[in-house]
From TrEMBL:
Regions crossing the membrane: 12-33, 39-59, 71-96, 102-121, 133-155, 206-225, 232-250, 256-274, 281-299, 305-329, 341-361, 416-437, 449-472, 478-496, 503-523
Keyword Transmembrane: yes
Taxonomy of the source species: Archaea, Methanobacteriati, Methanobacteriota, Stenosarchaea group, Halobacteria
Alphabetized UniProt keyword annotations: Membrane, Transmembrane, Transmembrane helix
Record protein name field: Glycosyltransferase RgtA/B/C/D-like domain-containing protein
Record organism: Natrialba taiwanensis DSM 12281
Amino acid sequence: MGYSSLSELRPLRLDSVAAIGGLLLALAMLPLQLFVSQVYLDTVPFVLAIACGLYLVALYQQDRETTMPRLPTSVSMALPSVVLVGLGGLIVLTSIQGERTPVFFGLAGVLATLILVQILFTSSRDFNQRLLLAQIVLFALVFRFTALYATPGYIGIDIWTHMGFVDSIHAQESLSAISHDKHYASPFYHLLVVASSLLLDVPLRLALYLSVGIVMPLSVLLIYATTNLLVSARWAVLATALFAFAGHVANWGMHLIPTSLGLVFFLGVLYALIRVMRIEYTIRDFSLLLLSSVAVILTHQVSTFIMLVLLLAAFVAQVVFIVGPFGLTRLDTSVFRAKKPVNLIGLVVFNFGMTIFVWSLTPYRDQSFLETILRYFRQTLEESAGFLNIASGSAGASEAGAEAAAPTLLEQLVPYIDVLGFLFLLGVTFVGCLYVVHRRRAEQSVFTLLLAAAIMLVFVLVLPMFGIRNFIPTRWFAFLYAPMAILGAIGLRTFARNLSPGIVVTCLVLFALIYPGAMFLAAESNTENPVFSEQHEQLAYSEAELAAVDSIGELTGSPDGDNIRPDQQLHTDHPYQTVFSRTGAYPSTTTATVPDGGSADHDYVVYRTEQSTDATYFGTADGPGRIEQVSQDRLCSPDQATVYTNGEVTMCTPSPAS
């Protein structure tokens, strides 16, 4: 292995300059850790530095002909059978244990690693992309549907509201049933579930799983179709696996809400957009792009905004290649085909115009949706925005409470375990971005992916550090993973081609071993039964907890929220309180306030055993809430009367004697 001498380096090559700039940026970000403790500030600089450093090593290595070790044919033929048997084992394991346990996620991580090993180390003669894609899709189906099977109700919070809307539309046979809500102007998800129920003659819950639930795992194939327009089948399959195994992507395959369907249509927009940039497209291809973008607008508002970011990135890429520094005559046709930039101004104007029009007519909190979000954004800028003013929800409150109580080693490690998979993907994405920024390899399609990922990372990582969370950054990750998976596959392809065999094998093996397991251990992949149950709230409920919601609703008569006095408001933990309010069982329900070391002081409370054994969220009297385990006597005082109990859930009210 040899390297170019300093006199042979070309410092004005954009990829080498960008890599050196990335190293300097990583160094400049390190002092921020002295001012605030935040998991991304602690980790992203190191990831950026490692990615840029490895890229520079690959860039100036003279040994360009890397011979990758390949699996023996017998092993390549046996591994698919091992994976299929293992998937059957996941189903049996869930059926026996009644839930997805840490053993389930451990076995899932091993199977996903075996899939990645097949992709990366199978010889060209034995490589079969159809068989590998089948394994990825089957894995995605099993991983998601075992969670749906083992959960008595629904997984997540918003799903209860949306299925309430679906039930109303189904009962009234009219969209006017939700005319008061913002989803009245974006009803595609709700209409799809109702139509599926009517066509298949099944209950609404099953219709949801047979429509949106099945579409979600199948949609990962759009990543393959998109990536295969840029690189060979091996790396397109790898991008598909990176996306399918991602935690937030899996989450929207289990928490089936309009965001889920919005993600599917977003992938359709991404595929159609890259397609029209890479081929001599026809009116059919452009029509697919137009229809997919309209479908996003009619499905979900946040998904629409993310799609507009993608289209804006594509337009900026067009401008860069028309008036910018990239000479298309120097394009390396062995990597990407030279093609005149596609004019997207009409598409961008149409989608922005239609979005503004629809949002102006969308009802939201006594105003239009557009007016409301602009007002909230202005208030945020005036009241809470500021550098390193990190806004936090329950997770941030949990960190604050943990600091006061001398956190254990596990409590300190869990936030880093949650983001480990994302950081691995982010690292190879940086490498992919450096690769495509070279003048000979730059073109509109890959620059669209680069700019889209960069802009979305600003919304996900940067704006929250300024106290701006109006754009709901947690909803962006699954969408962000689409360009990241494609660029990440290109980044790993760069390593495989340019680094020495020893370094390549080390990088790829570490990635295959750690990435899937880290993604599956992250909170987003196991919200129905968290692996770290003392640090993350469970966003699913047992049969007894759901029965208690119905029984308490019948016991109280499910009074209208306007008829409930403030002292009659029902208090319990978060997220359990959301089920009461979103199902209408007791509309005026909120999070109980439990002082540190003290007891709650509410008239009407609901206790469940989950509050004493696992992580649940409570408010505090003098600041943000926290995740804590609370005993029954701290929520239901001795002088209160027990009006309902089923062994797991207890409702306490003021005693008649008092």
